[in-house]
## 1
Amino acid sequence: MTRARLSELSVGLALPTLTKPPIERIQLVRYAGASGDFNRIHVEEGYAQAAGYKGVFAHGMLVMGFFGQLLTNWLGTPAPIARLSCRFRALTWPGDVLTISGRVSALIDDTEPRRATLALEATNQDGMVVADGSAEITRTD
Amino acid sequence: MLDRTFIGRTSEPVTVEVERGHIRRFAEAIGDPNPIYASLEAARAAGLPDIPAPPTFVTALFAGDVRAGMGIDVRKLLHGEESYEYRRPLYAGDRLTLTQRVADIYEKPGKAGVMDFLVLETTATDATGALVYRARRTVIIKR
């Protein structure tokens, strides 16, 4: 894996895109177990439908987890992340294919360590943005 | 609407340990195949003290439920926003003390009418009392 050289970032630089396999119901069950978020709306069809949805949908935090994966793919693990935030804009359903992208939005050189901010986006197969966010990374190298 | 007098309500501190198997299951659920989350040998070969946690793993650490008794119907919940401020990476074996606080409650008109917003803030400190991370979650409650 080629890691980003944090000293050589420029505004607008795109991170290598991450395309996830289709979301599976079993993945939502696994995520419920691993995250401890057992809201039945993510795992029981009847419960989700009674609540007014067409069926179960993904935990927002699963999508934010893909933001984390994008960053660690690019920066290595553990990634030098100072901040990570995510705004959930639309629901993600089983079968959806999400593409996770990011770009450098600003370089902050008047702090020590120097930092960069990144703009992040998760888009589904219809081109709809289901989540956007930002990260602030430190540039220590 | 949600009772604004809940603002400032704070959970009892909970001490949790970051566990290797928990990190591995979390990475598997996300679908991140990086072997560093599953293998101590891979982590040590990378020069790390133990298996590192993925960035959003902090959501899996149970901070108590400060929402208990607030009369919230979970079927009407939507997750609006989540943000993290990290002071250092987390590794398996870390012991953290978590405290959750109701940081804000407000209402805002949306497409489907007025909705309630609940902002929860979780802070995690280590044995020396130093801040390790801070999490801020905005939950939307449809009326």
Note: Chain B touches chain A at residues 22, 25-26, 28-32, 34, 36-37, 46, 48, 52-56, 59-60, 62, 74-86, 89-91 (CB under 8 Å).
## 2
Amino acid sequence: MAIDVESARRAIHQEVAVPLGLFLEQAAEGVIRVINSVMAKAIRRLSVEKGYDPRDFTLISFGGGGPLHAAKLATDLQIPRVLVPFAPGVSSALGLLTADFRHDYVRTILSKASLTHVDQLIKCLADLWAAAAAQMNREHVDTEGITFLPSLDMRYLGQGYSLQIRFTLAELADWKTLGPLVSRFHDSHRAAYSYSDELAETEIVNVRLAAIGQLSKPNFSQLPETTEDTVSAVKGSRNAYIDGKFETVCVYERSKLMAGSRIQGPAIVEQVDSTTLILQGQLGRTDEFGNLMIILEDQQ
Amino acid sequence: MIQENPAGIETRLDPITLQVMTNAIYSVADEMVAALVCTAYSTNIKDRRDCSGAIFTRSGQLVAQGEVGTPLHLGVMLPAVRTALRSVPPEALDPDDDIILNTPYQKVRVILTM
């Protein structure tokens, strides 16, 4: 796609820079800063509503434009690492073709934990297990290789939202009471909302079973290992406006990176389906499958 | 996102920084509401979301009110927080202190320290 730089300059100048009394580059960077802050807000809210702290995760960045924003979003949200898959622009399509079969089964039981027996859960999960196996069988998935992930949706009696508490079928078979599950719920509640109430009655809302039927995995070719520097992947340099000033930034060709390649930010990594921006102080590292991991400054 | 300024708070912000700060502060207020709704026992909170989260300055000026919640509370938040701060001055408050009041136009009845 042809890009008309002059038209872009004119539009930002007339529509943003002049009305706000800013320089052209200030205005252009301002557009990016504002959209980044909106995305950061969405990530925070979605994580907190599910009871997760974004700082405990790796940000996976895909789509054609995602890797342009990811390094800054990670910095602002204190997410320690960013994973940019080897072909971010077609990640969804690749996932569609290679993801495992998954079916989720759920049964609502609305039962106080103190009045629920382990046997009830085992019986309930056995029913869900049979339904999963039958469905996978109809879909010609090898039923030997199915992974089962049981969990409970639990809450304090009277709450409206629950937390998902995971366990294994082997653990459940060993337990005489629901004590371990209840204490796992208290821990989750404390981790998500900073408090727990050990004296309160807990309630099981749903029994869940996820059944994952594994498909044969595609054989991704591995990149050759390198211990050398990444000079051979540099295809030029560019005067880029980052954090309020112009600086000369190295531009790398993604397809020339090898396993173990290291890129010191600031850097721009270009490839046919996306462009990745690595910021000052951040380190980019390629693994043997060509995934680019961006590690934030305080995590190196 | 928010730069430290040892000389004190800047009185003038450029329009871009202002918008970025606005989004950040709003997201704190929204997070407060999300945590409250997810842990609530009251039907009024957990189902109707009849609650609000907001950030105030020490002197009781409203900075941001969460977008999730009840816009109607905009009217009562201000006198409620000012009443609370009149009875318990900000310098008397410690981190993790809570103030509970049910008469926004009068004195604070209960102070609970967690």
Note: Confidence is low (pLDDT under 50) at residues 1-6, 108-114 of chain B.
## 3
Amino acid sequence: MMKNRKARSASVMGGVGLMAMSLLIAPSVVNAAVPTAAKPKPGAACKPLNAVSGTGASALKCVRNAKSKKLVWTKTATKAAAFVAVEPYKAPAGEIEFWHWRGEDKAVFDLIISNFESDNPGVKVRQVIMPSGDYTATAYAKIRTNPKAAVFTTFRGSQFAQFAPTGIMRDLTSEKFMKNVNPNGRIAGNYQGRQLGVPYHYLFNNPVYNTEIFAKEGIKLPTNFSGVLSMCQTLRAKGYTPMAWSGGFRPQAGQILNSMMMNAFGSYDEMLKAIQSIENGSADLSTPWFQEMANKYAQMRDAKCFPDNPTGVTDAAATNLFATGKAAILATGTFSMGAVKNLNPAMSGKMALMSLIATDAKPKYVGIHNNTFNLSVNAQASATDQRIARAFLSFLLHPEAASMYANGTSQHVNVLGVTYVNVDLLNTSPFQSKATLLAPRFLFLNQGVRDLLEDALIGIVGGKDVKSATEEASRLIKQRIG
Amino acid sequence: MTLATTTAGPGESTGASSPSPKKARPVYRPSDSPILYLFILPALLLFVGLYLLPAVNSLRYSLTKWDGIMPSQFVGVENYTKLATGDDLFIKVLGNNLEFMFWVVLFQTGLAFAFALLLVKNTRANVAMRTLLFFPTVLSSVSVGVIWLFLYDPNFGFINNTLNSVGLSRFAANWLGSETTALYAIVFTQVWFHFGQMMVIYIAGLQQIPQELYEAARVDGASTWNTFRSVTWPMAIPTTAVVVAYTTIQSFRAFDLVYTMTGGGPNNSTSILATLIYQTAFFEFKIGYAAAQSVVFVLAIFLVTWVQRRVLRTQYQV
């Protein structure tokens, strides 16, 4: 089976035909609510503008034909044009565990694992899946005492920072399979110059908008902060809730913090230092950049961008508002699109990403991406198990398996040579070529601090004045880190 | 193995209900046969392993600075000093918990007692009603939290929709999204969830009151109120002590309901000690500090329960 795949993947990395075959042999992994697009081929009609069919040498781009004025798939020189994927390693016989928190990906992983096992006779990989909250809370203690957990995942940010200094993650810097990983998407798994994790996901934490509503009402996407405010007012006037925003659920409410911060600093380092200075107590929330950002939250509140009673809106209610067409924008990211389609399958193909730009100056960034779901090899596993683990990682990071994962789960991946045929992945793919910033929210490594900071912003949206909300949060943060 | 016996001495009672001298019953003493100690060993091991050692360990960790991964560092009573003097969030949360407990104990006990009085007789209608009121208790707390989350939704929820449709819009509120109402909304849910269980305990207690006392009160011409004041209530005090103590502990442990409904928000206005400890330990990775919070948590339960018992004992000799 692997020989066949090798032959094909050598010529066309993650080719569409192969992808279609993978989907054919694995109907169970293709969710009914995740339709696939027609096979992209040069000259065929496509949408949306600037969609990219993948990250491989044969990837096509959706551009407007100069003569016909129609959108058609066009061959384009991509950065990955010279890319040749590193083939998966061979694994010795044995059994390992793969620990992660994405229960919704189980079926797709089952299929990938069965392919891996058939390519490596005598190998068995067992998935151990925990809910994300439990995983955050207990994964380290469980993995540390279980050397069979040879492959495990961590969230970008505080959890990766918790694991990295302990020596439990094997250094993957010199692994050949790292060549299959997008060079710009490795930083989230890097610790003090060593590659201890491989970020598998390539998410967009940008608001998702309902293309049908915008087209029907003739509303253009805003390109600056004034445009955002006026868009909110226009949508309100037309009877829509502009942004489905769940102020009652901090983890999702905090997603727009990424967009609000992305153009607030001259450089990424400057942003990192600003965040660190809050976390180490050398600055508080009265710092100018935070005050300016908090005032913008207040301006958006006053422009009625948020739902009524915003602080009481739960994640489910916000998703429902958007899925039922009552709200035009869902202020979360690509990872929520699956839930929207589950609620209303008719939303499939009607969602695209938009920029939430919080400046009227020329923006440096127009969007947010995040590389998370860090895959690591347990350095405490036996030598044989580590070899199996590295082989399994090399398999997951091969364009073929990565394409299968991406299309089966509606997640963009951080792997080169991948082909997307999932219509929602194609719809959001234009953002891959835009200037996006690695989500700054996860630069906060102390979640206690981030929670208090986000509570202040939620309070402002709920009606508190900026000064009192930030003063209270500053006082609590100082005590929390003291 | 020797057999020891106990016998009642002259003038000693061997049991209030036994009119005749009771036949001596053999009593086995462990000292008679050390092998008898082995019978308590499984329970003892479970107790030591699952309760005593973790409790002692918590106490030990509370004197350290530890992130759960790197080696811990002994800091003496620093964690406790900070809790008492430099952590407004902890004080706020402790206050939330005490307020939550106060309202839950008041309403849960009051309602349970009131409904127990109404439904104490074993008629078919009463039994059906008891079943209905007891029903929420069998639900999982997460299900209850999710159900009430939908009911309380400020924009689509049943409560606000009903208020709006009957012209009472001014009473509609952002129940779980406002710092002024969120805690009370969860109090209401907690009371709804558990008062049926307490009602059943009360009914069991009320049915144990000897009917002779009511007959005597009737013969003495006591009014309904006087009968309640002099017979029912004093006789229900031991049950009340149990209900109050249980409800108090329950209200300190309402983690799942709070976590499901608000996650402690908005702005920590519904955080209780259990949610704060979880947050501190597993999201901020301050295990030592969380252990100190846990010790205070246990002491708070102990103190409140002790005060309650003292008050009831002083007045009614429970």
Note: The CA atoms of residues 264 and 289 of chain A lie 7 Å apart.
## 4
Amino acid sequence: MTTTAAPRPVSLRHVSDPPRSKRPRAIRNLRITFSGVLCCIIVALVGLAALNGEANLLFLLFAISMGALAYSMLAPVRAVRGISAERSVPQVAIAGRTFALTYTVRNARSWFSAWSLVVTETPIGDEGPLFPRGFVSLLGPGREQRVELTGRCTRRGLYNLKGIRVTSRFPFGLFTCWVDRPAPCELVVYPAMGRFRRDPWRERPSVHTRTTHVLRERGAQDEFYGVREYREGDSHRFIHWRRSARTGQLVVREMMDVRRTQLVVLVDPWPRPPDTPVAESPHPSAGDEDEAERVIQAAATAVCDGLERGHRVGMICRSDMPIVVAPAGGRPHRQRLLHQLALLEPGNPVGLDDLVARIRWASGWQHTRCLICAASLDVTHDRLVRLLAGRTEATLVLSPRLEGFDALFDTSYRPEAGGRTR
Amino acid sequence: MNPRADRMLYKAEAILLTMVVVPLARAELVWWYAAILGLALIAGWFTTIHRRRPWIGERAGNVIALGALALLLLECRWLGETPAVMGLSHFMILVCASKMLQRRTARDHAQVLVLSLLLLTVAAIVSGNLWFPLTLAIYLTVGLGALMRYHLYLEEQRQRRHNARIGGDAVAKDEQVHHLSVTGPTAALAGVAVGIGVVVFAAFPRIGAGMFGELGATSRSPAVTGFAERVDFQSVGPIRESNRTLMRVRLETAKGIPYQTAAPLYFRGTVVDQYSRRTRGRGGWAWWRGDRGDLHLRLIRLERDHHGERVADLLPDDDDEPDPDQIVQHYYLEPHHEGCLFTCYPALEIRSHDVSDIRKCVEDQVLVTARPTNEAIRYTVSSAVTMSPSLADRLADERGQPRDPPVHRPSSRLDRESEILELTARLSGNLGNLDDPTERLAFVRRLESYLRSDEFSYTLNPPPLVRGREPIGRFLFETRRGHCEYFAAALAIMCQLNNIPARVVSGYRTGEYNPVGDFYLVKARHAHAWVEVYIPGKDWVTFDPTPAADESDVQAGLWLLRARRYFDYFQFQWANLVVAYDADMRREMIESFQAWLRRPSRDQRTGVGAVVAFVRELFGWRLHLSLRERLVYWVFSLLVVVLAVLIVYIFVRVVSWSTRVLLDLAEAQARQSRPGPQVDFYLQFLRRLQALGIRRPADQTPAEFARDLAARHPALGPASEVVQAYYEVAFGDHALDSDRRRRIDTFLARLKKADIPAQAT
């Protein structure tokens, strides 16, 4: 797997309070760019040469350059004055996938056009995400223009959008002036979605061995669910030969359990050194963060996969605030689960085994499959597996540190690119 | 890079480089680099831009740049003849030429634009003619427009790169910024830049009066110049006429009236009087300034008078009244690196902002600056039109005793001296005593007439000299063809051989009179040599033995001549007002501006004058007023100020409000006149459903509502068609056909009559 230097998600603790002033005002800033500094130096040198030589044409050139510089400083200020912008952004997005972001830029002035406007989000701190920038080359007086962009957030989390920044560097890019229009908004970015390269529940290895998958299944009352393309590892029994002959590629039947099985995803994203007491959990390192993100990504994929297969899906997470979501189905439940996964924060007051031991589902643990998504496996997970072995129908442990994780789970799957992996 | 943007930028760069390279070439009189750049521009257009196949690659471009750098070092470090700034311009021109032949990125375009700006700076240094403001105007229009478009293009690409880097991309279409018209902002920028530039230029404090003028006057032109210290016949070959402008002279009478004369004017430069062989008798023949060791050089310092001008008398003061025949000559002299100042004979007074001290050769009455004039200078000289006896006495007094100057005969005997003497004797006829002023004058007139006769002809391509033979004798008796130096030298020798003091003077003759600006334009082709002969009682008298040459201006078309005169006039104004702008001009301008500002306040009949008078009254000019009366003044003035501010505020608000209202009205009218989508049937549909008690929920789109309606009330099935038609009309800009409209109207009519089955409602 590749790790990308993506911006870190905004912590929930940084969700800003409502603005103190009742009427937020736009803040205008004017800065000189590097090109502007160079240009000023060149103009100053011309001025010095004029002073030294007393050459009038150099004086004239220097004076006109001063005029051009003055205009370059005033023009971007004029360009952003009277410009208002509105944003249309979805409430939720999925990490790694594009989402539509639309700005409506309006020139409220009656006489002057605005040139070279760049519309983007007001930056959220130094490590905030990068949002796309819209460019409006010319906006006439009283006109408005819609700028449709596609954004992409690489990390899950809650992004507190402060406002819209309208920037102009017209006419030569020597000075830049921007105005921040307050437009507070929240964007929840769900964890990135991968895919399972094959059905994780079809393998049946031994029960208590700490391998990639531990599967125990009672009965097999499957029903035809649909067909899909053949993947490596699929049993030849399920190949749909007639369809394969017609389409020219191998197609397998996909079966589903007619019973409405429950799937409980147990998420333990942040690893803990083995000798650390349960109550003490150090702050995760950057490497741990990456592993945790992969675990959360696998959990989110499992949640969506389970719901798509018609299971009732529940979730138990070990995080700063323990999350327990009872199994249920439907689109709102899916969003609820993904929302919880999006907002997971490190912290470990209670071990996952203790948490599970205290849970009493109304529907019980029968006909329940458990998927344990953990960054690293320790004694608590052994206890957890033993605890669940007697209650549940099947238990699967998925961890990036175990062999076969990449063979089962594809984290770089991009549905927008026609299903290709990066 | 986008081909259209590339083409647009190429055009702009080609125009800018062409405009900027011309003044450089004109200043240097070297057109090679301009030709190379021109060829590169043409070749680049057909290869790099038109066919998209660049002529040279990046590596070859780097090699050319290195070669240009080597040439720069060679020119500046080892050759030493080219000024460093011109060497730098050669380097930049070659780099630009190589860039034009390559496929260029945005960075290369930026480099070319920056280099063209630097070339403009070089042009400002070396070019003092009217081409520079033309170039500047092109830069302020074409250049700034191209830069703006270039910025827009770069800005768009920058955002695209950013969006691509973070994983998203702009959905909107390509902005096609190169199609945008940037005329408005370009005009605004040029206006602001010129406005601020003029103010800063005019108000910037100046210490001295430095100016550069044109660099090209330093180059070795093959044309005749008037600045040689000697006339060397061996080194003078065929002469090419040059149209380079050397100076502009405005002539005025003492009362400031423009002066124009039909008689030729001679602007004296240098004087030579000794004709001899060079290098101990083995070289060619040349004219020298004889008796150099005895020359009386007088140092003249220009002192500031009560007007702040630098003035010096060139002749000792005379207690008598000033000569009424004086003419005042205002010279604008381009740099010529010789140091002599041209004057009409005899010069009486000099004024200059640019020169602080000069040297005057008393014997020759020529002026020389302390250092060679590497930059343009202005000076004003007063001269007498006619030589009065008193003036001749003053000149003689300045020279001292003996009054008659010595005769500088040739140092060695001429080959054909006897023939020359025979010729002069034959021409003198009955004239006996040449010491008599009248006889001497008549004698010289006869010699002059002889040389101007048809026996001699003027040419710039005289027959080649024969090595070892004296050229003047050959000219007088064999070739009889030559230019002004031959004629002047012949006349001077004929006089000197007859013991008459004579000398050859180099300088310029008259020039072209420009009636638009009332000035004489003196060019290099007006360089001339003539003779001055000493006539007792009249001092040195000018004789011009050279036959008249054809005047090319007469042959030029009238409109062309007029256009050229206007161009010269603007050039003269540019040189005087901009290139020669100095601290004194700045002071005068500020003083005149202050006077202009104060002018209305002095006249109480004007509004401004009345207000100023009132304010003066108010602030204590009338100190005899009592405190109570002053208090009334203050309160009243305060009320007036408040009222004025209030009126201005109300006026601005009313104008702003009325403008906004008018704009809104215009917008509303435009909106009404604009044909909008005809969706009245849909609104009618909603109203009639509302009458039936059915409302569209706010969270449902029209299509969802229609589907829901059809599912719940099968009798309302046509609602889907209504909504579909609404979508097509409102958002698809389609029109309903008649059948569809009829069906919808029927359905709406049924809805109105509630002709719907009961289960529907």
Note: The longest strand of chain A covers residues 175-190.
